[in-house]
Amino acid sequence: MTSATKGSPLLAIADVSVRFGDAQALRGVSLQIARGESIALVGANGSGKTTLLRLLHGLVAHRGERRVLDPQARQVMVFQRPFMLRLSVWNNLRVALWLAGVPRAEHSVRAAQALQRVGLAHLRDRPARALSGGESQRLALARAWVVRPQLLFLDEPTASLDPSAKKEIEALLEGFSRDGITLVMSTHNLGQAKRLATRVVYLDRGELRADLPTAEFFGDEIGGRAALFLKGELSWTLD
Amino acid sequence: MNDFAQSAQTAIGLIVHADAALLHTVLLSLGVSGAACLLASGFGLVAGAWLAVARFPGHRTLVMLINTLLALPSVVVGLAVYLLLSRSGPLGAWGILFTPGAMVIAQTILVFPVVAALSRQLVGDSLRDGGDQLRSMGAGPLTCALLMLVHDRWAVVTLLLTAFGRAIAEVGAVMIVGGNIAGSTRVMTTAIALETSKGDLPLALALGLVLLAVVGAINALIALAQRGGHRGSALAGVR
Description:
Number of helices of chain A: 8
Strand content of chain B: under 5%
Distance between the termini of chain B: 51 Å
CATH class of the domain at 1-73 and 184-239 in chain A: Alpha Beta
Shape of chain A: globular
Distance between the termini of chain A: 21 Å
CATH superfamily of the domain at 1-73 and 184-239 in chain A: P-loop containing nucleotide triphosphate hydrolases
Radius of gyration of chain A: 18 Å
Number of domains of chain B: 1
Structural class of chain B: mainly alpha
CATH topology of the domain at 1-73 and 184-239 in chain A: Rossmann fold
Oligomer: heterodimer
CATH class of chain B: Mainly Alpha
Order of helices and strands of chain B: HHHHHHHHHH
Largest sheet of chain B: none
Helix content of chain A: 25-40%
């Protein structure tokens, strides 16, 4: 199965393995991410999706090679349960801008634009940790978008959200993708992968088993364990 | 029981009549312990934050040492500072033995481990929750730790109150390096010790009640200031 790449390369890993104590979280994974792609990482629980995301973002110690091919490209990660500082919505955005080295003179305009974009302008003075799950996820996206990333990692961006909040988040992600932001997201939601991704990477017990354009991944030709996974017939006990 | 009743009466009398000597003693107590806490928190919070993120050979030993110093006897600190500041000591040229300055130094040393050890624990716990998020946004290790002090600012206030309580309630160090000189280095605890040794137990107890009242009033003021911050945290807890 071949890697579906387009645009200039941003990041690559080659033959990467990650171990947590006795557990082998990833084994011999190679992957390249190109500008403009929307990649969905799919796989059963414990398949290594989150570890791969964190590894791609540079948060995990590993064996093998990880190369940032465009050092100028800013990359940000939105976690499954976004951590918000005990500050207002507005000040959480300003901290993100400060950490990204954005000049102070631009903070107000950028933060206001970000809140406008995710529909939270009316909550700017609210404590960030008092937001609902959906609002908190939108703030996390605003906090990521406000620093103008070229590469955005998302770990289960709509997990535990109600259908309407899921729809809002997906709409925002589609918008980000249209703006040219490269997206790499882990998801259990195959419908979401179909809707948002241009490429699907399937992981199984820490190994990369398929890396295909979305249409091909969900097509009839796919076989093996990926096909079982798609049919929902792959349980953790199955060998 | 009579002693207690008489003490309460004496304490009220001392407060109501605003006895000049008592006022001086109270203000000196607050000044010395307040200055010591200010100094200790300046160094201790940064040291605690740094210890939460730094990794170097001997790190565990240093953390264990600071934790052990939580039980540092105040008379030992007093003796050490006395030896440092006495005429023949290495810092004898400063000529500050038996002055409030020496008392501030002694209490700073006494309180520093409290601030450093507790803030290290506080920051460490918060980093487990949100450290990756802050690193993802571009924060270096020490910046992450310092941001966590802002995040946990109300817990930090409680921590500083604990440190202040340790400072203002100790008698051994200030007695040794201050000398309990009336009108100059006599603080509440040394006055209580003196009255006890003179056998004037009701007055000693009354002074103790005044000390408690003063510290209680400070705590009440800080609790009022904290209320706003806790309201935000409580709302976050509901989510």
